[in-house]
Structures are given as structure tokens and as C-alpha cells.
Design a protein that fits this description.
Number of domains: 1
Strand content: under 5%
GO molecular function: transmembrane transporter activity
Keywords: Membrane, Transmembrane, Transmembrane helix, Transport
Helix content: over 70%
Organism: Nocardioides scoriae
Number of helices: 18
Protein name: MFS transporter, UMF1 family
Transmembrane segments: 83-104, 111-129, 135-158, 179-201, 207-229, 268-288, 300-321, 333-351, 357-376, 396-416, 422-441
CATH topology: Growth Hormone, Chain: A
CATH class: Mainly Alpha
Order of helices and strands: HEEHHHHHHHHHHHHHHHHH
CATH superfamily: MFS general substrate transporter like domains
Radius of gyration: 21 Å
Shape: globular
Length: 460
């Protein structure tokens, strides 16, 4: 922790900003391992296997529609990961806005980021002990780690405006996402070796999966040390004067932010668009491994290799879209990305069983578009936020971020439970991209940036 007085963007020279931006990018590298190895690849299929064992499924590879009891509700084992992800996001919807308001009042954003990250990694490490039919431990671990990961991301995103100018944010965010995809891909590659060749290490496949889950927690916690040490504190802006303790002051800041939102209709329009299209993106990413294994018949090794391919393609996709945004504008690139996602979902619906080549072609398309739309959404949204409210606004943004979207996962789980097939479940996700594009078309980006008090970049 630094003893320096908090500083602002005006106090940073271009060289200092660049150093802070590099330090900031390290957290993308750190936490992407959790989202990739745990949420995107291994947790869903492994939870279905463990819960299916508890439900009495005799074949670990079957599409298990037998149920387990959760608080008196009988849920299909095949839908359980979707419901857990949905519950984690609903819980986060109550927690994250308060955390965001707290972050806005603080000059110690990096401390909050690291503390939440380390607590989340501790819960994620408990997934190592999910074995036999003990799905309950895994359920608690993934819900708590997901909520804490969201809390850490609120602090992390709120620092973007502290370390970059309006003109720099697309490039900074794109580099961060690219760095995250690369980091998540590197660990996934190591886990691929472990899961494919467990006998080489004297272990069975299930232990290899559990060790891979543990490795993501260790990676997340370990690499968080770098931004924690190198980032500086930054002074809070326009803090609302409220009497009382930390919790009361945070709620006061949050209430003021909600009252203020009516002044920024374009910001809310983009947030609504993002809620829909990002729900679709996150559910496609989340469901890819389950869809590939349970519907298309691919073994875990193919799924890990496919997600690994997506990670490395997304690394290039984020950088590529960042360059295109400098020429054509982030808004136009995001809008075009939503239409590309519609085509991807329709293509996934018609994938034949066990056709690896076509599956990989769709994966490449996912990687290119995913890298660009996610990176530019973060930087574009930062331009629509009034200074001093980054934490509160990014807490709402984060509610729809990465693996914590709940509309999509809930719809995916319900459609599967009703139909017994993952094909109609994957097709149902196209509605999120249609709605996202609809609201993006209603957005006036230049007006929104000016209303927030930020400078309009030369390209939109």
C-alpha cells in the first residue's frame, strides 16, 4: 500500500499515465483465469456431472434432466449451473451498487479491488473440494466467488477514468482485454495439458479438473499483487457530504447518483442496450462448453482446446477492434458487433453433431467479435459517466458483465428444462442481440458524452 496522497489525472504526465495503464492492465490478466478456466470451461460440465451423480444419473456424459433439491425446489442437474449463475447475479444486483458508491467516496480503489479479489479467490479455491456428489459446496463457492469478482471489477473499472484521457480509453481498454484473453489462454493451455494427460502426472481426470479449478484461484490471487503494488491512489471527485458511518455515507452517495441519473438519458440508453447484448455474449460464452459437450458430443479436451482458441483469437480481436475504433469510432464498431453476434447464434443452432471443423469456425468468429465488443463497451461507457460517479455507474454495468448475466443464463436453463434440448436454448439467445441493437440505434453518442461533461473523441 502506498502512503502517497491521492492524485488525479491532471497530475499525471503522459509517461506516468502509460505506466499506470500498464499496471492497471495486469488485473485483466489476473482475473481472466477465473472467468475462463472456471466459469467458461470447467465449472458447468463438472457441476452437471457432480450434481447428476447426486441425482442418480448413471452416465456422467448424458444430458441429465434428473433433479436435485435446492431449498425445496427440484431443479434439473443439467440446468443447475445456469441457475447458480443467475442467483449470483441477482445477489450482486443488491451488493454492487453499494460497493460502487463506497468506491466513489474512496481514494483507495486499488485496495478495495485487491481485497475483493483475494476474498473471491479464496472461495474459488474451495471448488477443489467439490467431489463425489458434493455439489452443494461447489454451489456456495461459485456464487460467492462470482459476487466478489464483481465487487473487485467495480473498483477496477472505476480506475479507468483516473489513469487515461478520453482519447486514450479505447486503446487502454482494448489492451487490457487483450492482455486478459492472453492470460486466461496461457493458464487454460496449462490446464489442457493436465486434463488431457492426467496419467502422465499420476492422477485421474476428475482430480485434474479439480486441480485446474484450484489453479485459476491461485493465478487470480497471485497476479492481483502486481496492480496492487504498482497502482497509485486517486482522489475522489464530487463526493456527497453525508453524516454517519461508512455504510450510511455509501447509501447517501448511491441515492444521490440514482437521483442524478435522470440527467443522463443517453447513458441509461446505452446501459440498457449493454444489459441485453452483453447478457447474450456472456451466456454464449458460458453455455459453449455445455452445448459442445452435452448437445454436440465433444469430449472435455475438445472443449478446452476450443475455448483456448477463442481466447487467443480474442486477444487479436480486441487489438484489431481497438484500431478500427480509432478510425471508425467505438459506437459504430459495437453496433456492428451486435449484428455479427446474431449470425453466430444462428450458425451455432445448425452445427451438426461431432463436426469439429465447423465448431472451430464458429469459435473463431466468436473470438474476433467477443474481443472487440467487450473491450470497446467498457471504454465507451466510461465516456458516458460523469466524473466522480464511476464506481456507482460501473456497479450497474458490472451487473451485466462477463459470467454474471442472469437473464440469458436463466432463459437458457428454462428453455432446456422445458424442451430437453440445448439447441432451442441456444437459439433463444438471439433475442438479446436484437434488443441490444435496437437500443443502440436509439443512442446519440455525442450527446451522451457531452451531457456527462466529458470531451467528445474525434471518432465515435
Amino acid at each position: 500500500m502506498s502512503a502517497r496522497a491521492p492524485i488525479g489525472i491532471a497530475d499525471l504526465s503522459p509517461l506516468d499515465r502509460r505506466r499506470q495503464q500498464k499496471a492497471w492492465n495486469w488485473y485483466d490478466w489476473a482475473n481472466s483465469a477465473y472467468y475462463t478456466t472456471v466459469l467458461s470451461v470447467l465449472f458447468g460440465p463438472y457441476m452437471i456431472t457432480v450434481a447428476g451423480r447426486a441425482a442418480g444419473c448413471t452416465d456422467a456424459d448424458e444430458t441429465c434432466s434428473r433433479t436435485v433439491s435446492v431449498l425445496g425446489l427440484h431443479l434439473a442437474a443439467g440446468s443447475l449451473p445456469s441457475y447458480l449463475t443467475s442467483f449470483a447475479t441477482i445477489a450482486g444486483a443488491f451488493v454492487l451498487p453499494v460497493v460502487g458508491a463506497w468506491v466513489d467516496r474512496s481514494g483507495r480503489k486499488k485496495v478495495h479491488m485487491a481485497a475483493f479479489a483475494w476474498a473471491g479467490a479464496a472461495f474459488a479455491s474451495l471448488l477443489f473440494f467439490m467431489e463425489g456428489d458434493n455439489w452443494q459446496l461447489g454451489a456456495v463457492a461459485v456464487v460467492m466467488s462470482s459476487v466478489l469478482a464483481g465487487c473487485a471489477m467495480v473498483s477496477y473499472y472505476a480506475m479507468l477514468a483516473d489513469i487515461s484521457t478520453e482519447e486514450e480509453r479505447d486503446a487502454v481498454s482494448s489492451r487490457g482485454w487483450a492482455f486478459g484473453y492472453l492470460g486466461g489462454g496461457v493458464l487454460l493451455l496449462l490446464n489442457l495439458v493436465l486434463v488431457l494427460l492426467p496419467g502422465t502426472f499420476g492422477i485421474d481426470t476428475e482430480l485434474a479438473v479439480r486441480l485446474s479449478l484450484l489453479s485459476a484461484a491461485v493465478w487470480w490471487a497471485g497476479f492481483t499483487i502486481i496492480p496492487f503494488v504498482r497502482l497509485r491512489n486517486h482522489a475522489p471527485v464530487d463526493v456527497v457530504a453525508v453524516e454517519g458511518g461508512v455504510l450510511r455515507r455509501s447509501f447517501g452517495q448511491l441515492a444521490d447518483t440514482f437521483r442524478d441519473m435522470r440527467r443522463y438519458p443517453m447513458t441509461l440508453t446505452f446501459l440498457l442496450a449493454y444489459l441485453f447484448y452483453n447478457d447474450g455474449i456472456q451466456t454464449v460464452i458460458y453455455a459453449a462448453s455445455t452445448y459442445g459437450q452435452k448437445q454436440l458430443g465433444f469430449p472435455t479436451s475438445v472443449l478446452i482446446a476450443t475455448i483456448l482458441l477463442i481466447q487467443f483469437v480474442a486477444f487479436g480481436g480486441a487489438l484489431f477492434f481497438g484500431r478500427l475504433a480509432a478510425r471508425h469510432g467505438a459506437y459504430r464498431m459495437i453496433l456492428g458487433g451486435t449484428f455479427a453476434w446474431m449470425l453466430i447464434v444462428v450458425a451455432a443452432l445448425f452445427l451438426p453433431r461431432e463436426d469439429v471443423v465447423l465448431f472451430l469456425l464458429v469459435a473463431v468468429a466468436i473470438g474476433v467479435v467477443m474481443g472487440g465488443t467487450q473491450a470497446l463497451s467498457r471504454s465507451f461507457f466510461s465516456l458516458l459517466i460523469p466524473r466522480g460517479r464511476e464506481g456507482a455507474y460501473f456497479s450497474l454495468y458490472n451487473a451485466a458483465e462477463r459470467g454474471t448475466s442472469w437473464f440469458g443464463t436463466l432463459l437458457f436453463g428454462v428453455v432446456f428444462q422445458v424442451t430437453g434440448s440445448y439447441r432451442p436454448a441456444i437459439l433463444a439467445l438471439v433475442v438479446f442481440f436484437v434488443l441490444g441493437a435496437f437500443f443502440l440505434l436509439r443512442l446519440d453518442p455525442a450527446r451522451g458524452i457531452r451531457e456527462a461533461g466529458n470531451r467528445v473523441p474525434s471518432s465515435l
